[in-house]
Amino acid sequence: MVAAHHMGHRRQRIILVQTGVGGGNGEVANGSGVQRVAKIKDAADCLICYQFDLIRVLLADKERLLHDSIRLAIEDDERLLLVGQLTNESDLQTICSKLKPDILLLDTNLSNNLLHYLNLIKSHCPKLKILLLCSNPDDMEAKLLNHEDVDGGLLKSESPETLLNALHTIVQGNPWFSSSLLKIMRQNNQQESNALLTNREIELLRLIVAEKKDKEIAQVLNVSTRTIRYYLQNIYNKLGINTRAAAIYQATKRNLI
């Protein structure tokens, strides 16, 4: 027997297994009726209770044809709950605040001004995880994928199993991106970095990554240590950082090494 209980805006799934009668199927009541869940196995000689929070997912995608396949994939996972489906951006912020999803599955083609909505949504729902759905990634989508409020990116051509893996990964606080999207993101980062930094600053960054000291870097670049510190401060200002460790991290992230 399975029941779903409201806890404020949260919903928990509780599975009760009566022992001594073998395995059985469970059911859960949700907004669309009763949903069958995974088969319960290996009942022991006692009453066992499994309880866990459902991961609430909100889908915002213009392409209605994809809604059913995404819904079926989510319903097939007993740890997930699809709380809503949108096809336009007009009520996105309001719906997110009302339904309080853990993850927003967001189509990159939902709006021509998606960066605005990303900032708006995160200001009202700071704990929300955002997984972008991409069709034909371009430079604009690369900028969206690299946005600080985005937790992951998924090609719409990926399998349902890959979608579920991405959802569970980002809800745990880890990023998840399709491999082909990662390549586009790295290329975009490198192009932006090369445009942002001078050749001398990029060369200095590579020497920092190689763990060279200021004096060693000055010898390689044939300048004074004072000039090295000046270059380094310029790099810090341009990348919005203030330590060598952060410089190494940014050099790696932006594919400068």
TrEMBL record:
<dbReference type="Pfam" id="PF00196">
    <property type="entry name" value="GerE"/>
</dbReference>
<dbReference type="GO" id="GO:0006355">
    <property type="term" value="P:regulation of DNA-templated transcription"/>
</dbReference>
<dbReference type="InterPro" id="IPR011006">
    <property type="entry name" value="CheY-like_superfamily"/>
</dbReference>
<dbReference type="GO" id="GO:0000160">
    <property type="term" value="P:phosphorelay signal transduction system"/>
</dbReference>
<keyword id="KW-0238">DNA-binding</keyword>
<dbReference type="InterPro" id="IPR001789">
    <property type="entry name" value="Sig_transdc_resp-reg_receiver"/>
</dbReference>
<dbReference type="InterPro" id="IPR000792">
    <property type="entry name" value="Tscrpt_reg_LuxR_C"/>
</dbReference>
<feature type="domain" description="Response regulatory">
    <location>
        <begin position="56"/>
        <end position="171"/>
    </location>
</feature>
<protein>
    <recommendedName>
        <fullName>HTH luxR-type domain-containing protein</fullName>
    </recommendedName>
</protein>
<dbReference type="InterPro" id="IPR039420">
    <property type="entry name" value="WalR-like"/>
</dbReference>
<dbReference type="GO" id="GO:0003677">
    <property type="term" value="F:DNA binding"/>
</dbReference>
<feature type="domain" description="HTH luxR-type">
    <location>
        <begin position="190"/>
        <end position="255"/>
    </location>
</feature>
<dbReference type="InterPro" id="IPR016032">
    <property type="entry name" value="Sig_transdc_resp-reg_C-effctor"/>
</dbReference>
